[in-house]
Each structure stands twice: as structure tokens, then as C-alpha cells.
Amino acid sequence: MHGPLLDAVVIGAGTAGLAAAYWLQRRGLTFTVLEAGDTASGSWPAYYDSLTLFTPARHSALPGLPFGGDPEHYPSRGEMIAYLQTYAAHFGFPVRRGAEVVALRHEDSVFRVQAREGRAWTARAVVCATGTFRQPHWPELPGASRFRGQVLHSSQYRRPGPFSGQRVLVVGAGNSAAQIAAELGRVARVTLTSRRPPRLVPQRPLGHDLTDWLDWTGVECLPLGALGRVPDVQPVIAVPGLRAALQGGNPDLRPLFGTFTPAGVRWPDGQEEAVDSVIYATGYRWNGGYLPRAALNPRGEPRQRLGVSTALAGLFLVGLPGQRTAASGTIRSAGPDAEFVVARLSRFLETSLV
């Protein structure tokens, strides 16, 4: 059974989806938010326990509701979960939990959104806000099938305790790779290994948060997405303790190993070393396999410009890295990007009635 025809369905109740819900509500549009999990907090409950935001609370709030506590503090994973749940409840968004979308069809100018357990919704427009966390990227490295040790993705990592006393390799050069490796270095012998070394940037240059400098310069306001997807430069934020851990040599930094061996890895210089666990902190791929094939490019990514589908009228996207500005895909950009997209969605609804 399909319910009443809505103006929009938002798929995903993380930061991007809830920001879209805010602007849809502000415009008086009818909508519902579909969340695969059991809380209105997106993928945050599944991140590793010690995760702390890189941006202070005053840059980490969604539109219409400030983040609680000291505006200069850096919120934890648990605080972010609580904030998102409070946000959804504060505005009374119609969030449908346990609604994992598996199919999206577009017929006769109406979208039909199907959840795995059978529920379905119809709407004149759809906002995809499913992000990437449900699609971990597993690189194909030589000899991986022969390795007898433990291999996992950072999406499966929670805390360092189970790795105590082990020899661990963390593969990757981004923020998660560096932070997980530094945390593991307190209980294990760790190497951070990647094709290129991580590029560390200070979290508070000259006493001000990095995001303040980006805000003051206006760099993150430039709509570079109009020219195509904005490249992800992936600097590693030198949060407290990270630089000291790297300088202390645990973790140490090494170029990516050449191949797995049954007991470990072989490094580029030919040296073989026994390894207990390898953690891939190698990022994610966009999570939108429910979209019609025509809406995707050959890489499986949405055909879009500035969050508006270029292949399917009425389809919009939020939360994509690089979709509109250099900050797109971050919490601080969720509100502005969603406002931009919902304005385009509202215009679409108005013109499609003519």
C-alpha cells in the first residue's frame, strides 16, 4: 500500500538528510524521512568509539538548533548521536525508522520508493541522503587471499583493546587511518602504510580553528561544483596527540607493502614481516544502489550537478563530497547544501505543476 502522494521523500536521516528535512519543513512541503537504522542519527552509531569531530561545536550544528555545551569544544561521537536525535525530535520530523530503501522507480512523474520489508511511499520528488558509510571500499592488494591473519575495514573497528600486543598495519592516508593508527599505538605495534604519506595540517593555526580560517577567507563558499565534482584533497587534521604519536614512531610511516604473504606482508625492499591484523582505512563508495541505472554514471555514482540529478527530473542529492563546494560532504556544509538543493526542489515542484 502506498500512502498519500508527498511532495518529497528524503532517504537517510543523517546530518544531510535531517538538514534537508529542516528546509523542506520551512517551505511547508509534505515529506517523510526514511532511515534504515533504528535511530535518527544516520551512520554515527556505527563509527569507532573514540571518534571526535574535527570542528568545534559552533561549526557542527545543523540549521535552527545550536549544539549544546561549550561552542569551542570538539563533540564526541556520542554527543553527535544525541544531537541528531534531539534535532529530529525538536522539529518533529516524520522519520520512518527501519526503512531500508531497496528500489526507486519513476513512473508518470511520480517516484515510488520501496523499503526492504515491504513498505512503500510515493512522492513528486526524492532527496537522496544515504552517504557512503554502508559501502566500504576494499582495495585489491596482491596476495590478500593467502594472508592467514585478520583483515577488517575501519567501518568494523570499534576500540583498541582487542588488538593489544599485536603487530598491526593500518592501510590509508586519511583522517580515520591516522587516528585509528595513533589510538592502536597505545596497545600494539603499529605501522601506517599507504601509497602516499598523510598530509598533516594544524587543527588550530595561530590559535584559531582551521574552519574559522576557511570561513573567513570564503574558500568554502565558492560553488566550484558548478564546474564538476570538487576534488577531495583529504588533509589529515593534527588533532591533539596525533603529531606526537607519529613523531614517537608508533605508529611509524611506511610506503604501502608490495604483497601479502601467508604470515604477513613483503615490503617494497623485499623484507618479509609477520603481521597479526590489517585494517583498511580506505574510505567508502557512494551508497545508492537503489537508484535507477540511468541515474548513475559508469562508476556507479549519481549523475548530478550541484546536487540536482542531470538524468532524472525530480531527483536531488545531499551529502555528497564535492557536490557544491570544497566543504560538501562535511557536517558544516550540510545546512547550506541542503538549503540550496531544497530551493531547487521547490522550484521543480512549482514548475512541474504548470
UniProtKB/TrEMBL annotation:
Keyword Oxidoreductase annotated: yes
GO molecular function: flavin adenine dinucleotide binding; monooxygenase activity
Keyword annotations: Oxidoreductase
Pfam short name (any one): Pyr_redox_3
Domain of life where this protein originates: Bacteria
Keyword match Oxidoreductase: yes
InterPro entries cross-referenced by the UniProt entry: Auxin_biosynth/cation_transpt, FAD/NAD-bd_sf
Protein name per Swiss-Prot or TrEMBL: FAD-dependent oxidoreductase
Species whose genome carries this gene: Deinococcus radiopugnans ATCC 19172
